[in-house]
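Example 3.
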Amino acid sequence: MAEKFASERNIKFLLYEVFDVASLLQYPYYSEHSVEMFDIITDTSMKIGRDLLKPCLMEMDKEPPEFANGTVKVHPVVRTFMQECGEGGWISSIAPFESGGQQLPHMIDFIPRFIFAAANYSASVYPMLTTEAALLIESFGSEELKNTYVPNMFAGKWQGTMALTEPQAGSSLADIATTAEATDKGYYKMRGQKIFISGSEHNGVDNVVQLLLARIKGAPAGVRGISLFVVPNKRFDEQGTLVPNDVNVTGIYHKLGYKGCPICQLSLGEEDDCRGYLVGEPNKGLGYMFQMMNAARIGIGLGAAAIGSAAYYASLEYSRERPQGRRSTEKDPTIPQVPIIEHADVKRMLLFERAVVEGALSFLMQCSKYSDLKMVLTGEEKEKNALLLDLLTPVAKSYPSEMCVWSVSQGLQCLGGYGYCDEFPLEQYYRDVRIHPIHEGTTGIHGITLLGRNVSIQNGKAFQLYLEEINRAIREAEGFAELKDYASELKDATAKLEKTTSCLLSIAKEKGQDVFLADATLYLELFGIVSIAWQWLLQAIAATRALRNQLTEEDVLFYEGKIYTFRYFFGYELVKIEGLVKRLSRTDGLTVDMKQEHFFDGM
Amino acid sequence: MAEKFASERNIKFLLYEVFDVASLLQYPYYSEHSVEMFDIITDTSMKIGRDLLKPCLMEMDKEPPEFANGTVKVHPVVRTFMQECGEGGWISSIAPFESGGQQLPHMIDFIPRFIFAAANYSASVYPMLTTEAALLIESFGSEELKNTYVPNMFAGKWQGTMALTEPQAGSSLADIATTAEATDKGYYKMRGQKIFISGSEHNGVDNVVQLLLARIKGAPAGVRGISLFVVPNKRFDEQGTLVPNDVNVTGIYHKLGYKGCPICQLSLGEEDDCRGYLVGEPNKGLGYMFQMMNAARIGIGLGAAAIGSAAYYASLEYSRERPQGRRSTEKDPTIPQVPIIEHADVKRMLLFERAVVEGALSFLMQCSKYSDLKMVLTGEEKEKNALLLDLLTPVAKSYPSEMCVWSVSQGLQCLGGYGYCDEFPLEQYYRDVRIHPIHEGTTGIHGITLLGRNVSIQNGKAFQLYLEEINRAIREAEGFAELKDYASELKDATAKLEKTTSCLLSIAKEKGQDVFLADATLYLELFGIVSIAWQWLLQAIAATRALRNQLTEEDVLFYEGKIYTFRYFFGYELVKIEGLVKRLSRTDGLTVDMKQEHFFDGM
């Protein structure tokens, strides 16, 4: 079984050399922390990942949660891990001190999340969801809600969830039909069905708190009539004892992967006794929920990159150890075979994995930095970081999700027949990672968000800020002779993205929304490739700078390896924009004009 | 559960309208057949697929073969199906009458294979392997071998296999180490290990016949010392009773998918009593085996396209029935939702699936036609068809295998969360189809075969013949005003392929084999896209011609649907060559120069 699942060396390279997390310490909000503490967090996370989570990876897959007697039995590690996350402050890490949190930068909070997900994605979801749900109550809930729920969630005793999807309302949240009927006792009576809700009931915690979207009776149709509620599976009675709240699991899903975390169907109010507590104001629920959804979307990107990382190291280890074949110039069949990593095609596959995973990770850390700067800066600078984060969230969710499906597949391919068998973890990673283009909004939805909304935010201001960010990296790279050609390639690619964007925006006016948005998914793909190229240029700048110093042999190999991977991305991945730009320039409306009857070809 | 898995209408369109299978009836070898009989074969295959195979699809996945007491227990349908295949003549269909076969064209034999694989891929492998193994004995075995084995195999009573892989010899067949020691009794004593052998022992037949590569003691090292043997799991004793032949199953693999067919590890000669029977001459085994390998490679492409077809229809059915969301121009949330097929992005995904599946199918049928013409023509014409088949076999194996992994993934995506759950068959198709880029030579191996060997066959003659084939289609398309622009696009793409090929061949001289072959996998991808574009142009010609006739409304929709899918392929897929051509023009040797130590990034 492959051991390594993430690289501390790479994490520290990104944190300190590319994104200079130490620069955040100058701001009062983060000033109580130190680089030493950041290192301890990384080291401790690796230890938990290695000793607690990774050993259960396959077991949680082979023995998935069981639904019986109204509850869901999960692997015992869930309770241990949730306790550890509570006691270690991992769940509350980005919450402010005054709310009982650790007030850590997002860039640092990012590290345990990534490491836990790389060690065992299913396990990592439990605390991650709890954090996001608790922060949502913190942001918009009443003092009573905060006091009742948040401390138990931060302590890892109670699970948090996000309960949006219903049988008729998946991508289309406007169609949410779960109802909330006001009472004169301060709560609402809830009634409805929720489906596909991760972690919504299990025996690894003492209670589950659903952050749930529903419609108050009489509310307007569509998204303007959706409110946010806290609906616990158990509520306190007058004696302060936890009693059932009429939230009933009606089934759990049998899934391709991501099996260690139960996804349930819930029925609310079967006995007319399900109480929900309104968060914030009525009919503003979707807006509130976007705080959790946006954080969760970056979390999904991170989860995908994490599985990609684990798969990369598993295939790297195999490729170093498996002897097979000889160099193409070697004709003597009696000399020993070489490890397959010596074959250019295997190196190409490993480089693809590494370029995708480390590029995605860099991009996600970039987004975390925007979150941090948005927190500590003010005025125009604050707004700038908020706009960039908003613009890039669909990319942060979708690029890792889509591309790590392919990078894990290449990892599996490195192992040949063994990759297809369950003695090695690749086949599980391949199944686990496939959830990411689906949950928290499918890739198609994010394409429409990016092209249909985000690039036009404030008349294109966010997009302009993004182009400036890239241009700053290009100008810096131009200062290094070794990087000049690459800087110019990225300049060219960015110009193509800009031109494609304005062409498409003019199409919106000429041919209408349907044609404009028809290939939004491909636009998202184009945007993603350019973004990751930008991140690789930033990494190349840091590596080139480092290589000018006196270094150990190990460090030389590390930075040279970064440069090779950077060159791989530009040479093999960035070129893919050529086909995308060509396609996007032809807005022929093919998929709009074609009728569904044209798929008819007999019974 | 989705019902449709393949389209008879499309099969007949390809057979009769694109490839004119009836034209084969003019040759004496095929003259006893008729179009009516071809139709009956298609109809009967659909019936077997629908009534016998499809109903067991999920069951065979959920209850995979079990290894116990030295044998492997498979689903009872295997025995029924093998019997039916024997009685119906499906196993022997392309064998000549004189060998007990049906003497059917490959293009027709192709149909039941495709249909069975679309209905239930695992089940389809049993007769497919048996056919190929029996034909190998027919081609190179002694009369005694033929008489002993072939009739039982054609009757579906005995299973055939191909036994190549060993622990140290997967992609590298030169390293095969199983030994054969001559005796004076007409047989060899076999000793060694084989791994990853599909169907190599099971209770669905009375005996298994391994077509096995081994090394006669004292044979030269490498591929020139490999011989081909028949090694049955049971042999006849002197009384004519079947007795064990010391072929021992030591384990079966637990796989990601393709679970209905057991893949075993075998140990030969543990008790020094395993008899093998030499096929043909000593040390020529690999050459003989290539007959079976090449047929099996086209079979793998077919299997991938078949799973792709089943996934396409399952996602099409879902997309037609699932209401979700409204058109992007519709702002009223109270009007009913539309079926998701009305969304351009869903149509795009379905078109991707259809374009890949029907394009691959067309290309595979093209290859079958070359097989048929090679059989019935003589002299230069025979050689021409043989060369084309040889050139294109790696593409026929790899394009469907690689692209149907993607197309099934898009099918799964159409279903959103349901695609990830086992109530729908997509997640199984996604697991099943992933074997194809691995078995019968990985995609990397086929890239090296295409670029390193095939395009240079007879000084590039095969490649020139291929270009002529495409040019003939282009000239024909130029006769239709509607197709002129597309013909010119394909001309441009073909010119790029030709130029890339000669650039790469000159690199071989300048920079050596390693750099030349470093991106052979990407060359294969480029070659595949151009080939499928050619096939779509052929289909567009047939559809355009048909649309000039008086047609039923159904037929109009069918042919228009073909034209939309053709336009999709040119608009969305053919453009991908731009990035590939750009990459392949930069032979910077990145993956050759980079050392494995550059992947080092800490423990």
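The longest strand of chain B covers residues 188-198. Residues 457-588 of chain B form one domain.
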